[in-house]
Structure formats: structure tokens, C-alpha cells
Amino acid sequence: MAPARVEVGLPYPLGANWTGSGVNVALFSAHAEKVELCLFDPRGRRETERVELPGNTHEVWHGYLPDIRPGQLYGYRVYGPYDPRRGHRFNHHKLLIDPYAKSLTGDVRWHDACFGYRIGSSRADLSFDRRDSASVMPKSIVVDPAGTWGRDTRPLTAWSDTVIYEAHVKGMTARHPDVPPPLRGTFAGLADPHIIDHLVRLGVTAVELLPVHAFFDDRHLVQKGLRNYWGYNTVGFFAPATRYLSPGADPREFRLMVKKLHEAGIEVILDVVYNHTAEGNETGPTLCFRGVDNASYYMLGDDPRFYFETTGCGNTLDLAHPRVLQMVMDSLRYWVECMHVDGFRFDLATSLGRARDRFDPGAVFFDTLRQDPVLAGVKLIAEPWDIGPDGYHLGNFPPGCAEWNGKFRDVTRSYWRGDDGALPDVARTLLGSAELFDHHSRKSWASINFITAHDGFTLADLFAYEEKHNEDNGEDNQDGHDDNRSWNSGVEGPTDDPEIVELRDRLRRSVMATLLLSQGTPMILMGDETGRTQNGNNNAYCQDNEISWMRWDGLDPRDTGFSDFVAAVLALRRDYPELRQPGFLHGEPVDEAGTPNVQWLGAEGTPMADETWHDPSVKVVGLIYGSSDGRRMLLLCNAHHDTVPFRLPPPEVSACWRIRLRTDTAATAADETALPAAEAFDLPAHTVVLLQGMRP
Predict the structure, then answer these.
(1) What is the pTM of this model?
(2) Which residues span the domain enclosing 110?
């Protein structure tokens, strides 16, 4: 075979890009001394040629290969100093993934050759390993970005109408009996009509997918026979994870999934991990960024041999570096422009705005994000914490970002398990946590309300377990949170006791109703609507099995009934604008009579007194919404263990009241019985009731 022709080419765009007549290759590395492009046979087993990139412009190594076509497998070898004490870890014996690769072949096959140093050496990572890693490394693939979207139309759902469903591509589809077996666990499986019909029937408007960027299973998990199920272990910010592609498929399968969801009116939000990579700490493997330019891509410690680490995963990407920032922004734009996604949830977002020991909401990443015209119309969500110093910043992210409201989760759990003194906090979260978000013209939708998420108990487990049960993770039950604010309802784990079963069902209905009827943007965890259990595991990150997967068939009637209940509550949320206001409600008048848009009521049916708010034993409250058209909605909550009489508002508010929802029963049909004004209504224990005021 004749040697590949190579010309100088251009230093942009970064990556290996098909021009229609050849491939231009460009790789940033500020400290490299030489870069070789390595070409492989179609199966990726034989390195057929190494081509030294002839150009180096503004720290970008580049070349143009007129004879290369889409489908070509490739990787890089980057030459430079191996000097960990100065932050440099170049090792040209290690084949490297292209940071801009749009597609990869399979997973890494773990071997000591994946590491830049000699494992077992007395000098640890200061040693140098000369074994070639090409045979065990995935290969990057040149792709043809051309494709047609047909009439794909983004749903563009207003934030105030948005209901998010946090899902896992494999977990959602692996056990569905009507999804063809080859498609289970794939993007094509998620696009199956049976999956989409379920989401539509529920009434959710967006799926938020756990990470789908290329990631690998950690070596220590593989050695235990486990996998990195969640996927927070990114190694390629442009390539879809190969494990989610059906046999023989390419990244266009992801596009088809997005198009099918869009046709159903459902947006696609990606959970993205730009805070760290799969390369871990100084003893981690050399897969990509570490070998391309360790000192540029990562935040290094005061001793450059080590990393400044705020993620719990061994390293932190340095988004203050212009080329790292460029990579992240290019990645975001790629998924919007080429893959048509509708938004992003930024994992450990505090790390993205770090000035090392402190968080800066005006950091270069957030300023760049806010001014980008491509990203102006997509949904942006921050997880407002990391594990570094000054790491918790709920409510402090800049305008344009919504935020996961962990306070909503915590106080709602505390309230419904009956904790004393929880009422004032849960009242604030019911109205969108204005004390956190009502600044800089932010709206109530900025609060992403959730009770459960991938990290923690499922809703069914929240009222079945008081202790975590993570033994299957192989860490002696030491991993996972200890502050779960859960209640086992009297028995730890499964039970046939009918009273406990009824109590658990009532509690999950009440908690779900609280979530879906609160101001802000609700997020439902995959499978909570069908009673999915993880058997008390609150950290199932490595459980790629039935512990984590959603069950579809053989469901208990109680669980299918709960799915109907969730759909009914979401229908109420759609029908009554009072329940999804875009702005914050502070009791402003809605009519000439001075009727407030919201008012708190005590059990006596009168405005809540200050001393009642401060009484820790009070666990019952009423919230009445007023609107300019004269309609009144009344939300009642009782977290007591006993029934509490609640006096309905007087006739001047409403002549009578009809129940639109109650959580002490599994029935979802509205009760048309008229309840007279000013009379006592027996509000059952552990119950939410929504009533509509009727005009005289």
C-alpha cells in the first residue's frame, strides 16, 4: 500500500473532518513536540500507517489527507516531555482518542498498557511505560456529517409548561417486552412507539437522558464484574456511547431517536459531564486528554504532579483555558446543530465556574454560554454543587440557567415523613423557592423540583427503607448517602401487611402530587410511576441489571394504577394555569377587589398566623390561588398521622368547592360532590387534596 499523501492543511476546525474530497485533521496541544496520526484497518486491529502532521499553527497540529474517506479508523500518538513534576505526561507509546472524535469503536479493553507509567513500580506514576496500547484502545472514526432531518421540528416547549422525565437509555428499554430484542438498551429502543406512547400518556414534555457521551467502564468495576451504568465517566464529548447503538448502527441512530421524540412533542435534554473525564487522578490511564496535553486540559494542584480535584472523580477540566473552553462550547453546539437536542443538564456545574477555591457565577464559561447564539434557544440546567471548597451554590447561577433544587427534595421528604418544623420550608418550595431564585429577573421555572433522581432512593424505596442497602456494589455498604430523609412506614423492605402497603401507596401519591402541583419545573425519575424499586440501593451507579432497569410487564395493579394517577395529576397541571405560573407569586392582587394571587390558610380556614408558622408541631396547611377570571383553587396538605378538620374558606371566596384530586385513594376521577363553603372538611392523614372553587 502506498504511503498516505499528506498536505499541510488547516488548523481549523479541530478534529478529523471530511471535506467532501479528503480529511483535514487538527489537534490542539500546546506542549507537544510532534504529533502522529495513526491509521488502522477496518477492524481496528492493525495499525497500517503513521503520518506525522506537518503543520503547527497557534498550538494546533494539522494536516490534510486527500485519500482518506469517512469510515477510516484512526488515533493519535503525541510526543513530548514525560515530566509529571511539571504537569507533563506525554507518552507516544499510548494510542490516544481524538478529543473531537464524532464516533468511536467499542470500549477500552483494560490492560496495564493503558497506563502511561509502570503499574507496580516503586516510583508509581513517575515511572514511564513503553508498552504500546493500540491493541486494547478504541479507535476514533472519521464520519460524514451529512444527513437529512426531513421535517424535524423542535417542540420549543415553554419552560412553564415543561415536565421533565429523567431516564436512562438502557434502563428504560432493556426489559420492555414489545421492544425488539436487538433494540433494547439502545437509542433505537428509546424511539420505539411503545416507549414514546408511555411518555405521551404520562404527559411529560421532555426526557433528560443520563450521560450518552462516549464513556468507559472503570477498571476496578470491570474487575468486580460490574459496569459504570450511569455513565458519568466521559472520554469523548462529541461521540455517542457505542453501547447505546444497535448492531451495525452509527451515530445517525441518535438523530433518528431525537426526531421520533420530537414528532411526539417531547424534547431531548442531555445530562453532560464537562467537569471531569474518565482518566481519573495521577494514577489513572492515558486515554486521551492526559496524553494530548495534560497541563492544558486539567486543573493541576500546587504540585503539578497532582490534580486540583473538585468532582470526586480524580480530576477537573480547566474551563478557564481557552482551548478547553472551546472544546466544550464546540461540543454543545454540535449536539444542538447536528443532533438537534433541546437542552443540557450540567453535572456538578459548580466545577464549571471555579476560580479554584471559589465559585464565580461570572466565570468565563457562563459568560460564554449566555452570549452564544446557537445555545440561546435551548434549555440549560445546572446541578448547583460539587464536592470542592465553597461547592454548594443553589440559587447562585446566572440568569438563563435553571437549577436542580436539592432543597425541594430534602424539605419535601422531611415534611411527608412527619418531621417537626418542616412546614415553613415546604411552603416556600411549593411556591418555587423564591428566596433562592427570585432575583435578576429569574422566573419560578428556574427551580427544577424533584423528589427522586438517579442518585438516591426511588420513590417506592423512599417509603420502604430507612437505611441504604448497597451491598451489591461491593463496597461494604460504605458508598451512597446516609441522609436519605426516608421512612420505611414501619417495616424495613417488602411487606404484605395491608395497612403498611396502603400507607406507602398514599405517601407516594402525596409526594408525587406535591411535586407536580408545586410552582417550578417538575422532574420525575424513570420508573417512579410504575413502582420501580432498587431494593434499597441508593447508589446504583454500577448496577447495569434488573436492580436499575425499569420493569414493564407483570406489574402489580397498584403500580399500574399509580401510573394512571401521575397522568391524572399532570393533566390537572395542564388544565389549571394557576399551578404552573411562570412568575413568582407574592400575594399580589389579581382583581379590583384586591384578591391575592396566593394566600396561606391555617386549619381554621383563615390566613395563617405567624405563631402557627413557628409552631413545629403544625403539619397541615392550605394554599389558595386566585385568578383574574374569578376561579379559585385550594391545595390542602396534611402530613400528620391523624385526620385534621380543615374549615373551607367562606362564601365570599367561593360558594362551594369540588374535589379535583385526593391522594388518600387510588381513584383518579374528580368528585363532583359540592362541599359547602365555611364547613369543616375532614382532611385525612398523609394526604393532599386539590379543590376547585365554584362560582355562586
Answers:
(1) 0.97
(2) 15-141
